[in-house]
Inverse folding.
């Protein structure tokens, strides 16, 4: 039962509206900013801060996925491409009220020169990727990175990568999520690339409903 | 129409929460509950392979003469099992609500370790409010 992109947008919108308790966006941005600054002071190494943010995000993601599944009632995604769509249109929308745009990609498999990202069944093999392009980032509302942070390689919103990794791992997908570019660093866009490493085969066989 | 009991089983088959409502069910020792939950977990895994027409979910409802057992398997591998009388028709809806309460009261508590037994007053309270 393929759900169209438009239907996902509607689901996302409804979930966002249905949330009884929303947080003040500024308070959220300020809290996150304070957290990052504190981490920088504690670790004094931007790579380490990136790692810690990712770890925290992972913890959040493993828990957040239950809330998402309980409320959205979305069934299993057919392939990794659909996963990307759901993450962007329903996931991000229902939690952050933003809808990043998604571009799909993946390893071109040996023979096919006509690999198109629309017609053929989407790559579900390890190596499939999708990239989220965030037009706005509620975490980084008022932020300007200082010189040292720019040189040190800080990804300010790296917690999002952890959230993606944690959430997807709980539904049997091992992924890596990394920032490709960030407007805070002077790039044109803010982009997160999510790559499927492998599907996790657990002892619990979770069949198709 | 009555709800007798609720079990929550983690993805490894371990029982993380059990609760009886009313006095329909006799009280077992915690060890017995653990064994029952583990057995159910195994049976559920087997039933998902029994479908003659390809991949399927595991058993969702198991009925006996005097009771019904409804199982909700989440995409994360957690099982919510509701034991009710035969006449109870709202088991699926109730289980979905239990899942929501679980997502709120249990998973969002940063001090709760996932897959570990649930010791949360908030969860107990809300389940009581939901299931009596």
């Amino acid at each position: 039962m393929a759900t169209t992109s438009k239907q996902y947008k509607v689901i996302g919108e409804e979930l966002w509206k249905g949330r009884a308790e929303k947080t003040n966006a500024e308070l959220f941005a300020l809290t996150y900013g304070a957290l990052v600054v504190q981490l920088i002071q504690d670790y004094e190494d931007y790579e380490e801060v990136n790692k810690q943010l990712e770890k925290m995000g992972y913890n959040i993601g493993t828990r957040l996925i239950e809330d998402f599944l309980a409320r959205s009632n979305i069934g299993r995604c057919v392939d990794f491409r659909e996963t990307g769509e759901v993450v962007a249109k329903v996931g991000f929308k229902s939690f952050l009220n933003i809808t990043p745009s998604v571009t799909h990609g993946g390893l071109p498999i040996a023979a096919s020169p006509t690999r198109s990202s629309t017609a053929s069944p989407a790559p579900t093999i390890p190596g499939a990727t999708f990239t989220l392009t965030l037009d706005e980032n509620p975490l980084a509302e008022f932020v300007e990175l200082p010189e040292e942070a720019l040189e040190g390689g800080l990804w300010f919103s790296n917690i999002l990568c952890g959230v993606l990794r944690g959430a997807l791992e709980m539904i049997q997908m091992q992924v890596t999520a990394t920032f490709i570019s960030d407007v805070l660093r002077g790039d044109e866009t803010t982009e997160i690339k999510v790559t499927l490493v492998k599907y996790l085969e657990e002892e619990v066989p979770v069949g198709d409903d | 129409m009555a709800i007798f009991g609720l079990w929550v089983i983690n993805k490894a088959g371990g029982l993380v929460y059990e609760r009886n409502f009313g006095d329909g069910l006799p009280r077992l020792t915690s060890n017995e509950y653990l064994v029952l939950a583990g057995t159910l977990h195994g049976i559920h895994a087997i039933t998902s392979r029994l479908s003659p027409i390809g991949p399927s979910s595991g058993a969702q409802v198991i009925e006996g003469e005097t009771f019904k057992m409804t199982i909700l398997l989440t995409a994360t591998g957690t099982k919510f099992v509701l034991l009710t009388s035969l006449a109870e028709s709202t088991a699926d809806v109730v289980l979905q609500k239990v899942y929501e309460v679980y997502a709120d009261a249990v998973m969002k508590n940063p001090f709760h370790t996932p897959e570990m037994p649930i010791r949360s007053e908030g969860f107990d309270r809300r389940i009581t409010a939901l299931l009596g």
In short: Chain A has a mean pLDDT of 86. DSSP finds six helices and four strands in chain A. Chain A touches chain B through 23 residues (CB under 8 Å).
